[in-house]
Amino acid sequence: MLQNEIYVGSMVQGRQYTPSYRSKKREPIPKEDWVVVPDMHEPIISRELFDEAQKRLIARKKTIKAKDKDEPALFAGLFYCEACGTSMKLGVSQQKYFYYMCGRSQAIGTVACSSHYINRDTLYQVVQEDIKRNAKLFSEDAEKAAQKLMELKCADQQKQTTTMKRDLASAKKRLADLDVKLKRTYEDNMSGKLPDHIFTMFIADYDTERATLKANIAEMEKTLEKVRDTKADIERFADLIRKYTSFEKLDRFMLHELIDRITIYETPGMGRCRKGKEKRITIYYKFVGAIQ
């Protein structure tokens, strides 16, 4: 049920096939070969909620054997290689410590992608500190933290908001005036007060200005909507992150509630054993994306 796309409005066909007409046995078809037609009926749940459920199902399944017990893969479904997009694979060394490396590099070799090798404890510490830092910022001064995040996400649009609202009102007024003038022009032409060649010229000018105004209005409304949506998303994130002002350790529920994905990028030419190697870890939070 949790993996059935029918609940998001899609129609799925071609999941199984019959190898022979002589047999009634049905064989499964790989998921990538299914025929999925979206928006065939009214969805019961949103696509976002469905996709989130798939991530959590994946995270539940991933464990690794160590010292005769299952070790939960804390970052399963969240941690990816930024260079190739492949998920980072959890492994355990002969010395019994955990590490992550690029799944593509692990499967094919460094010719395909750098290993992006990182100790799990190092990743744990980075993520834990970043969550605590942001939780503290939004708990101590939520307004200031939200304003800084707004500037990071849409600084230019936010600065232009006041002017854009005024320009939008002016453009809508001018559009309404044009519609009135257009009606009068038609009436004057029908009554014979306005010659046809003058009428044609006026109509062409009106149409050109109306088209320009409509395009400008649509663009300004889109920009203002983006600012409003960003502000709403930041408020949602603020409410979420403040829940974790004080915690002792990370858990999978916390990570999947707060974080959309984590990526790692390794400086080209810096191999695993090179001194001075650099790795950049980026945390993309729910609603707001990367904050740093």
Q: Can I get a quick summary?
A:
With 292 residues, this protein is α+β, with helices and mostly antiparallel strands. It has helices at 47-61, 103-108, 120-140, 142-159, 161-191, 196-241, 252-258; strands at 11-13, 16-17, 27-28, 35-37, 63-66, 69-72, 79-81, 88-92, 98-102, 118-119, 259-266, 279-285, 289-290.
Word description of this protein:
The chain has helices at 47-61, 103-108, 120-140, 142-159, 161-191, 196-241, 252-258, and strands spanning 11-13, 16-17, 27-28, 35-37, 63-66, 69-72, 79-81, 88-92, 98-102, 118-119, 259-266, 279-285, 289-290. The strands form five sheets. It has a four-stranded mixed beta sheet. Strands 8-9-10 form a three-stranded antiparallel beta sheet. Strands 1-4 form a two-stranded antiparallel sheet. It folds into three domains: 1-45, no CATH class; 51-160 and 230-292, no CATH class; 161-229. Helix 4 packs antiparallel against helix 6. The chain is built from seven helices and 13 strands.
Helix content: 40-55%
Largest β-sheet summary: 4 strands, mixed
Structural class: alpha+beta
Q: So what's the oligomer here?
A: single chain
Number of strands: 13
Strand proportion:
15-25%
Total helical segments: 7
The rounded Rg comes to: 28 Å
What spatial order of strands do you see in the largest sheet? 7-11-12-13
Q: For the record, give the distance between the C-alpha atoms at the N and C termini, rounded to a whole number.
A: 38 Å
Based on CA inertia axes, which overall geometry fits? extended
